[in-house]
Amino acid sequence: MTFLGISGMQYSGESLGKSRILLAEDSNVFTSMIGMRLKELFDIDIEICRNFEDLQLAYDRSTDPIMLAISNINLPGAENGEALEYLIDLSIPTIVFTGTFHQETRDKLLTKDIVDYILKDNVFAVEMLAESVCRFLTNHRHHVLIVDDSPTARALLSSRLKRYNFRVSTAENGAKALEILKKNSDIGLVITDYNMPDIDGFELTRRIRSVRGSHELRIIGVSSSSDRHLSARFLKAGGNDFMLRPFIDEEFYCRVNQNLDTLIQIRSMRSARSVGDIKNVA
What we know:
Elements: E1 3-4, E2 10-11, E3 21-24, H1 28-42, E4 47-49, H2 52-60, E5 68-71, H3 82-89, E6 94-98, H4 103-111, E7 116-119, H5 125-138, E8 143-147, H6 151-163, E9 167-171, H7 174-183, E10 187-193, H8 201-209, E11 218-223, H9 230-237, E12 241-244, H10 249-281
């Protein structure tokens, strides 16, 4: 079945049913809705844990790795967030599915390096959750290159992207970035800083565009500068997007997803057109 997510994500690949996923949720309504939807879309049979004891038993009774967990903040037997802490301590990637939310909660969740959080407060909640699950399980297909002369900035962006299950390469300057791109034709997204000592972000973008178009690779420029005209210069140099630091986590992930979704759609259309041309010739 082809899946079209709320944000425009498209997925029509093979079954994701081999992925072991735990759902820590005590609501019969949501466990039923989530279980049915993930089975229908991706052929995934989730393991339901209705309380903290069930969650601990699910982990202890099997040696099969848990690919992903979906967890409410509070569960019976873990009314103060112990279930989420348990999953994080085990280094299990976790999507939080919760109806309890405010700014303080959001800030605390993001410090725990969760994959994502989905709010139960709208009719699209299960669809949004399905999209988040699909993205995490398929993000490893995307190879992202980070270009920044700051080790701290590279480490921060790399950590964020790996949290979402992307494959990541890093380069400390423009020359190294061009070398990596030459050796890795599968890189679909470059995130590059503007202010670098040898080749700045504009020049790097121009050099990349001389050999690889937007239908092959997307480029997001980033900067800590307060100069709002930088975005226009990046776009005119061949970039696809631009963001100012410091990033808001949700916005950063959304912009990355949008650029990769666009790339997939372009590739799909070009592939379909090529098939059509072959049929016409035949």
